[in-house]
Design goal:
The two termini are 34 Å apart. The protein contains two helices and 25 strands. By secondary structure, it is an all-beta fold. Strands 2, 3, 4, 5 and 6 form a five-stranded antiparallel β-sheet that branches. The chain has a single domain, classed as TolB, C-terminal domain (Neuraminidase), CATH 2.120.10.
Length: 414
């Protein structure tokens, strides 16, 4: 489902692809959502924050993506193609609200239903946007479907992905600009076999940005005129940023529209990127680089500017293995954590906090652990955090607590 690392099949079977992330708030902050931060409360130093979690649902079958609805429910995508509904007042519904299993290729540990997000007008039209690997050969597929009506599904865009089963990406989310963003992995296996990351002629290894409210040229979407490669010969105009290996979960900050991207490394480094709207067309480096270290010098082209990650961590000879990208906290229950981006790792379950500094750059800290095998971190409609756990099949509510530093305590990493 959601793993992004190349490992022997025996290990991949036990480690789910960090599937699907998770869920994003509607493009424009809707009524009842937290957006403008609490001006009266100063953000706490990251080293004074810790996360705690409470299991609120169990019995899910390889849950891989999570998104909040305007009515307070959360939708949970399961790898086999079913979508379950959870409400904090009534719990997990027994029956799926949507079943796409007849369309889904689950032949590999990382294939399946990978991403789900509601239309910004969901309360009126009931439309969901989904990303999945489709039968018969695992093509990466973006589609829309009315909830409860799988027979009315419309495919919007596909990318062939038949050779290898891993590195499918699969996050979908609407931005503040009203456009839909979709992440795709580099094509799988190891070492970027198709050299997709630096190739603007393929959708593999990219995050796309499209207008799903209009149709153009026989397609069920249009390409926004301000996409960065619209006028670049040989480039796919849908591309927003490139140079990705397997973006296992990105999210949109509902306040400033920036993208936070967790990109899974190969053998040494996991990375998190922060891309603001003004950085459209950013090259995040793969497979010239893995994080900041050079990975394949032949993919490093003279004169090409690369955008550094804002946070990276090693996993070689550690318990880390694969980053699960998270979200920026914009809820109201813990004002001291407002504006903090929180992510994790599928194996170590460490909770990583990253935040821009007012003086420039970023601060980071480890602030505890999430429940086992986190595949997606997302928010409900109020901006409060939840996390999915893969093979246990759990949904957990996440809260921040503030701890007092020890005398002469440490400060956040620069």
């Amino acid at each position: 489902m959601s793993r992004r690392r190349y490992r022997p099949a025996t290990v991949l079977a036990g480690l789910l692809a960090l599937a699907l992330s998770v869920s994003l708030l509607p493009p424009s902050p809707a009524a009842g959502t937290a957006s403008a931060g609490p001006s009266h409360t100063r953000a706490a130093p990251l080293t004074e924050l810790t996360v705690t979690s409470e299991q609120v649902a169990y019995g899910l079958q390889r849950p891989i993506a999570l998104t909040g609805l305007p009515d307070g429910r959360m939708l949970i995508a399961e790898k086999n193609g079913t979508v379950r509904a959870y409400h904090p007042d009534t719990g997990l519904a027994a029956e799926p609200v949507l079943d796409l299993s007849a369309r889904i290729d689950t032949s590999d540990n990382e294939r399946g239903l990978l991403g789900i997000t509601p239309s910004p007008s969901f309360a009126r039209n009931g439309i969901l946007y989904v990303a999945y690997t489709s039968l018969p050969a695992g093509a990466l597929t973006l589609a829309r479907v009315p909830i409860g009506a799988p027979e009315r599904l419309q495919v919007l865009l596909t990318q062939e992905h038949a050779e290898y089963g891993n590195h499918n990406g699969g996050q979908v989310a609407f931005g503040r600009d009203g456009y839909l963003y979709w992440s795709l992995g580099d094509g799988g296996h190891a070492n970027d076999p198709f050299k997709s990351g630096q190739n603007l002629g393929t959708l593999l290894g990219k995050i796309l940005r499209i207008d799903v409210n209009r149709s153009c040229g026989g397609k069920r979407y249009c390409v926004p005129s301000d996409n960065p490669f619209v006028r670049t010969p040989g480039a796919r105009p849908e591309i927003w940023v490139y140079g990705l290996r397997n973006p296992w979960r990105f999210s949109v900050d509902p306040v400033d529209g920036s993208l936070w991207i967790g990109d899974v490394g190969q053998g040494l480094v996991e990375e998190i990127n922060h891309i603001r709207p003004s950085q459209r067309g950013a090259n995040l480096g793969w497979s010239c680089r893995e994080g900041t270290p050079v990975f394949d010098q032949t993919q490093c082209r003279p004169g090409v500017r690369l955008t550094d990650p804002v946070f990276e961590y090693e996993h070689y000879l550690t318990e880390n293995c694969s980053v699960t990208g998270g979200v920026v906290y914009r809820g109201s229950e813990t004002p001291e954590a407002w504006g903090t981006y929180v992510a994790s790792d599928y194996c170590s379950t460490l909770a990583f906090a990253v935040r821009p500094k007012s003086t420039g750059g970023y601060e980071s800290a480890t602030i505890g652990n999430f429940p086992i095998q986190p595949t997606a971190i997302a928010t409900d409609v109020r901006g409060e955090l939840y996390v999915l756990s893969d093979l246990p099949g759990w949904l957990s509510r996440v809260r921040f607590e503030r701890v007092q530093p020890a005398s002469g305590g440490a400060t956040a990493n620069g």
